[in-house]
Each structure stands twice: as structure tokens, then as C-alpha cells.
Amino acid sequence: MTTGSLSVPANTVSRLPIRGRLLAMGVLAAIGGVTFLPFLAAGNGQPIAQLAPFAIVVTLIATIAAWPGLRCADATGLPMPLLRRLDGSSSSRIPLSAIGVTLASSIGLGLVGLLLLRLVEAPQLPGSIAARAFSAIFAAGPLEIVLHLGAMSIVVWLAHGRRAPGIAVAAALLVVFHLAGALDQPGRIIALSVVANGAIGLVLGWIYAAYGFEFVMLGHAVAHVITVVGG
Length: 231
Hints:
Shape: globular
Helix content: over 70%
Mean pLDDT: 90
Order of helices and strands: EEHHHHHHHH
Low-confidence stretches: 1-8
Strand order of the largest sheet: 1-2
Largest sheet: 2 strands, antiparallel
């Protein structure tokens, strides 16, 4: 099966085990949940210790979402060139353009997002620079495990391998996730959240379909750091 510039033998991929990748996703989810706590605490004024259950819930949800996500990704041949090596695959190659395209698009989206935040005079985000920077692990880790690895892969499988429905659903869920914390903001900020997160969700979904889930995590981390640290 051909996906973007990466050729993936779906019949071979679908027989791979997922144990190594599932463990990696669980560990990443736990790290993302814990490193998000300082940013969360700065936003709601609660002590970090009281927010510890959040990290546990995040870890469980992301790990549970990763299981069907990995199975559906393998069944539909969605690329995952580095992560599949954790489960014994050595046949996938990484396109030379993957890192360049991912960095260029994510840096561009991050800078545009930062500019739009300044234009609408959005309030400064809470927390120290370090707390905001470390929140990128949550955005690129457990959040992406649920949205793109989980939701997008499942929808692509339900759509018999068609990528577009999965990309659209994951982008919509990213918008909903960010709207949940922005409904008390002025209308201009809500509109910005919808447009900006919808755009990056679509781009990240395309990156997943073309290059692999690893590059989704890289792209979201880069865009998040630029926008959140600068904002």
C-alpha cells in the first residue's frame, strides 16, 4: 500500500505485534501527564499534588486508546517507520522529506498561531516558561496518542483505508479539546482557537498519512512550543 512517499506492505504490517509500541505509548503518556501538571496548576491555582490523579487518568486513557489505534494503523498500512522497529519491523524506510516537511510546516503554523494570539490580544498563558515548554510533551504525547494514533487510525480503518475521513475527525476532536478550555473567552479568541487548531489538526493528520505518527508527535511539539512559550 502506498501512503504519500512511503511504501508500506500492509499485509506484512498487519501481522506485527504491538507490545513494544504499546509500552512506549504508555510510558510517553505517563511522562506527558506528569509534565503537564505544573502548567495545569498554574492555570487553576491548585497544588500540583492535588492534580496527580489527572496524570493517572491521562496515562490510562492514552494507553487504552493506543491499543486499537496501533491495530487499526497496522491493518490499514498507516506509516510508523521508527515505532514499528520496537516490534521487530526493519523494512520501513524514512522518506528524506519527512523531517524537513514536518519542521517547516510546524514552525510555520506555530509562528502564525503566535502572531494571531498577538493580533487578538489574547491574555498571556499561565505558568513559567519552563512549565509552558514542558506542556509540549502532553500535547505531542498523550493528546496525539488519543487523537491521531487512536481516533484517526480507527476512522481510517472504518473507512476501509481512506485517509480523509480520519484526518477530518482527528482535526475536529483537536478543536473540541481546545474549545473545552476556551468557552469563557471572548468570541475572537474562540474563533481563533477553532481556526488555528482545525488547521494544525488537518496538517498533522496529513503528516501522519504521508510520513508516520512519529512525525505527528514531532510537528505538534514544535508548533506547541513556539505558540505556547511565545504566548
